[in-house]
Specification:
Number of helices: 0
Radius of gyration: 21 Å
Bound molecules: calcium ion
Distance between the termini: 36 Å
Shape: elongated
Largest sheet: 5 strands, antiparallel
Number of strands: 10
Order of helices and strands: EEEEEEEEEE
Strand order of the largest sheet: 1-4-9-6-7
Oligomer: single chain
């Protein structure tokens, strides 16, 4: 509402004295409630609430089960070691150096408290590029780089945690950046987002 308003709780007594009603811990803050979006996703069924946005790379982030089509890059299963589970990845064949693709979260409500974003990443390949974790402040339209991982990290899944604090509503963005060759497939799995610092 753009007008001045009041919020009131109306308590109505029941039939007899066994009707006490209690309230506690009322909070009031700007923005939608904190449970508006979930960032958690294991990518086994779909992209959950994440959106794949093609940047300059030939392919956007997409789900995959088993290994990626090229040898010498990409995982051979998802982060649980399962060849039936899925992950999301950026395919880098038929592309050029420094080309990008974006995996974008739903909007997260502002909060004075921190959140912990955790995820697994797989960055195997001789010509591996970079994975950047960015938050975009939806009010100030400002982008902040929170984490960057660059180069060949071996043929294993790694766990990563990033603490996020924002007083404005925001989105989390994973930016994949292709390296100098096709051995640059970047994969992500098991994103979790919870209250508190990491
Ligand atoms: Ca998975
Ligand atoms: Ca490939």
């Amino acid at each position: 509402s753009e007008h001045v308003f009041e919020v009131s709780f109306e308590a109505i007594r029941g039939r007899n004295y066994k009707s006490d009603i209690a309230l506690d811990d009322i909070k009031f803050q700007d923005g939608p409630c904190d449970n508006s979006a979930s960032l958690d996703c294991d990518f086994d069924v779909d992209l959950c609430e994440w959106k794949s946005v093609r940047g300059t790379n030939r392919y956007p982030w997409r789900r995959r089960t088993g290994s990626t089509p090229s040898r010498g890059t990409g995982p051979s299963g998802d982060s649980t070691g399962s060849t039936s589970g899925s992950y999301v990845y950026m395919e880098t064949s038929y592309s050029r150096p420094r080309r990008t693709a974006y995996l974008v979260s739903p909007e997260v409500a502002p909060s004075s408290r921190s959140h912990c974003l955790s995820f697994f990443y797989h960055m195997y390949g001789k010509t591996m590029g970079s994975l950047n974790v960015i938050i975009v402040d939806k009010i100030k339209k400002r982008y902040s780089l929170l984490s960057t991982i660059t180069g060949n990290q071996g043929n294993v899944w790694h766990y990563k945690e990033v603490t996020i604090t924002s007083l404005n509503k925001y989105q989390v963005i994973f930016q994949g950046v292709r390296g100098n060759g096709y051995r640059s497939d970047i994969a992500i799995d098991d994103i979790e987002f919870r209250k508190g610092t990491c």
